[in-house]
Amino acid sequence: MEKNQNSQPLAEALDGFIAGEPAYFCIPGHRFSNGIPDGLKKRFGEGAFKYDLTEANGLDDLHAASGAIKEAQDLAAQLYSADRTWFLVNGTTCGNEALMLAAARENEEVIVARNVHKSVISGLVLSGAKPVWILPETDPGFGFSTTVSPDKLKKTIEQHRGAKAVFIVSPTYYGVNSDIGALAEICHENNIPLIVDEAHGAHLYFNERFPKGALGLGADAVVMSTHKTLNSMTQSSMLHIKGSRIDERRIDAALKMTMSSSPSYVLMTSLDAARAQMAECGHEILQSAFGLSMKLRQELSSISGIEVFGGSDAGSLLFNRIDMSRVVFSGVRLGLSGYELSDIFFDKYSVALEMADGICCVAVVTGANKRSETDRLVNALRDISSEYADKAGKNDKIKYKAGPGVLPKMKLTPREAFFAEYEMIKPEKALGRISAQSVSIYPPGIPAINAGEVIDENVLSVIGYCRENGVKVHTDTGEGIGYIKVVK
User: Considering only CA atoms, which of 280, 282, 279, 271 is closest in space to residue 207?
Assistant: First the structure.
């Protein structure tokens, strides 16, 4: 039966609870808004704290949902045409981990695109599954990973008939979508589920001018960061499944392990509200984002020395499955790396970009952006182009490309390496040693090497570049890359 998408069952349950003004002897300790620290009240006001409640009477329980939370999740499932939806309060990270735990057991093989987020690697450590890596295609000009080739996937499955699942990321951090329909068909012919990290694609379901979302193209499970491109709060995400190739009871059990047992009602309410907003006016919101982003693409493309990934033709972008709201551009012809260009934008013009790498910058346009903001970006880049027009030339900071390159050899599974005895050594002494940790350039959080892999010259080159140029890196130990953790 069709549900009323205009309703917000969780928000409404909270409204009723607050209106009753109960004497409150539950956690959290701030008691609605009575105990808010002055510094937080000044910055946040009282509103959010009133809704920061717990599993009190009539407010349901995320880990055993049967009331308002279940109704809210069911509405989200209906909106996305999923068979079941879970609200996530630990971001897409916990969803990726849970799906890996649900898909495969220790030493079972899982086919994994090499450009997956580090949370997928965490899922491999937790499950003990053995990754079979598949290298995505790489854009020759911008250097980042793009799509997973259906032909390459087909050959990989033929060589690994026992694989329990295929795990890819689409769209990528750079807005490129794989041919999900073709990949799903190959997987399903072999009775293998296709799992998609769709962290950057929650918006793709609401306007025909954008590439289609993975769930409608045959994916068996997707996890989406609703906060990234829609309007819920940071750290709120959704996990959707369709079909029966993945055991939903195993997902339930895995989420109880990977997600907080004290879920934030503020985050869950924001998911409920974001869903209702997209049901009511998602098409219009995305139409606004489309118009802003296409105008931005056209104006950036006209600036001397600037190259825009995918160009500014809407038909071509859609045909090539590129999310046009993710505007990726390069100032390499001006002699500027993406890192340098991003720093100039913020330090001199107060324009904050989503991310940068050695070649390009990424700006994410949503329906909440204003034309005045895109104008600031364009005008700043015109100034930069004029200033650096005569300075183009050799720049060592441009040499690193975001694609993973040649795969290191895997000697241990990520789980085996994670639990192995280890020592910390200088990277220059690590050639040929087995890494006991992942090293991820962040963002986008794609590992240059994973635990269990042999440190080779290519990996050392990436680490050296990051150290020399101050590129942000995440490791398991959080100690940067002055030392690297290796198996004894």
Answer: 282
